[in-house]
Design goal:
Blueprint (H helix, E strand, L loop, with lengths): L3 E5 L3 H13 L3 E5 L11 E4 L2 E4 L5 E2 L3 H6 L7 E3 L4 E3 L2 E3 L9 H6 L5 H12 L10 H8 L3 H16 L8 H13 L2 E4 L5 H7 L5 E4 L5 E2 L4 E3 L5 E3 L2 E4 L8 E11 L12 E3 L6 E6 H4 L9 E7 L5 H11 L6 E13 L12 E2 L9 H17 L1
Helix pairs in contact: 1-8, 1-11, 5-7
Bound molecules: flavin-adenine dinucleotide.
Length: 378
């Protein structure tokens, strides 16, 4: 007779844990989710024909764990371009877009040595030291402060959701190499396709939606109606209460012209720290299903507490001549966990989630798999 296992949280980590438990054990699996929808921090709303992800997120299709996890045949992925506009100037990846070589070499973002180092780091990455931050590694590798401010900071602040580049150097190198070889993509029907794709692979997991659980100890938990249930193992697949997060605010704007002058390619627009806006993604140019036909949808992201009015005013100054309409704001206070050593909940359940690996889709999936492998050994 198989064991009884409860997983609390149907984000990517919990879903992937269930998938691997199904493969590795004959356990009876209950997956509890406090919200109606699975997916945790990855959600998409449909508003007036626009697809609005809960905060701007992209999927690197070559994330190693993702390649072992998702049913790619059912994911229709739409890529952004490899390059980006930094303060209005296009900086491309000459190895993938030879036409961008001239503008990239001439872009006043750093010295010629910096630009050569960017290439070198791609093919000959440094080995990060333990506890080294991304910023420390860049300095040690020989990059000038100028290129850090004008390139790495704008680019990676949109990924790390902090401008200090205080994330681990190891995670930075992992991402740098992926971004160099891969494209940031959006699934056809929005980012929520990722958790849905995974949930659709579950064959014998009972998913209990809209069911917030209180974990009492490693084997007992309480349902919302007060019923206490006992399991052989309880997996807490969500960040512990003590987790500190980076936050981000996403304002969605649309315009009638689907590809006005400034948005003629699916390139991200990044800004140095002089702006309230940190990064803008022309979603409907990358993936036309994000907007009704003929319309442009922008995801405008800020790491500050600026109001929608302030963001809107800055957008108009940046792109004069385009009439933008505000659609919706998402303030995501718990976006990416700060990767300090996490403090376990007192309930002693088994922990699972991105906070245990790296703050990313890949990290959440890895944690889900590792947790299932651990339990299968018990
Ligand atoms: C704005 C934003 C931008 C991001 N950008 C990127 C990106 O571009 N690329 C990338 O790779 N990653 C990105 N990420 C990170 C990525 O989305 C997360 O790392 C990943 O989704 C975390 O999955 P998880 O399963 O570990 O946690 P979560 O998604 O947080 O899942 C935890 C689940 O547990 C549920 N839960 C919590 N408590 C209970 C309870 N008591 N009972 C029942 N259920 C409970 C929650 O409702 C939730 O569904 C971004 C995240 C955000 C928010």
């Amino acid at each position: 007779m198989g064991k009884n296992i409860a997983i609390i949280g149907a984000g990517l980590a919990g879903l992937n844990c269930a998938k691997h438990l199904e493969q590795l054990t004959d356990a009876k699996i209950d997956l509890y989710e406090k919200n109606q929808a699975v997916g945790g921090r990855i959600q998409t709303d449909e508003v007036d024909g626009f697809l609005l992800d809960h905060g701007f997120q992209v999927f690197l299709s070559k994330y190693p764990e993702a390649m072992k996890t998702f049913d790619y045949g059912k994911l229709n992925l739409y890529p952004f371009t490899a390059g980006a506009h930094i303060n209005g100037r296009y900086v491309g990846d000459p190895t993938r877009e030879p036409g961008s070589l001239g503008s990239t070499l001439l872009a006043p973002i750093g010295t010629m040595k910096d630009k050569l180092l960017i290439l070198k780091m791609r093919f000959n990455p440094p080995r990060p030291k333990q506890n080294q931050t991304a910023r420390e590694l860049l300095h040690e590798y020989g990059f000038s402060e100028k290129i850090i401010k004008n390139f790495f900071q704008p680019f990676f602040s949109g990924v790390f959701l902090n401008r200090e580049l205080e994330n681990s150097a190891e995670f930075f190198i992992f991402l740098y190499q992926l971004f160099s070889a891969d494209y940031a993509t959006l699934p056809k029907k929005g980012m929520q396709e990722l958790p849905q794709n995974l949930a659709a692979q579950l064959k014998r997991t009972n998913i209990h939606r809209s069911t917030a659980i209180t974990i009492n100890d490693s084997t007992t938990m309480t349902l919302p109606n007060g019923e206490v249930k006992t399991y052989d193992h309880i997996i807490s697949a969500h960040p512990p209460k003590s987790t500190e997060f980076y936050s981000v605010t996403t304002d969605y704007f649309w315009a009638d012209d689907h590809s006005p002058h400034h948005f003629d390619s699916a390139a991200l627009a990044l800004f140095t720290e002089t702006k309230l806006i940190n990064h803008i993604a022309p979603l409907s140019i990358a993936n036309p299903h994000y907007a009704p036909e003929g319309k442009l949808l922008l995801s405008v992201n800020s790491l500050t507490e600026a109001s929608t009015e302030e963001i809107s005013a800055e957008l108009t100054t940046l792109y004069p001549g385009i009439s933008f309409n505000f659609l919706k704001r998402y303030v995501i206070t718990e976006a990416l966990p700060k990767m300090k050593p996490y403090i376990r909940e007192k309930n002693s359940a088994i922990s699972c989630g991105d906070f245990m690996e790296t703050p990313s889709i890949n990290g959440a999936l890895v944690s889900g798999r590792k947790t299932a492998e651990h339990i299968a050994q018990l």
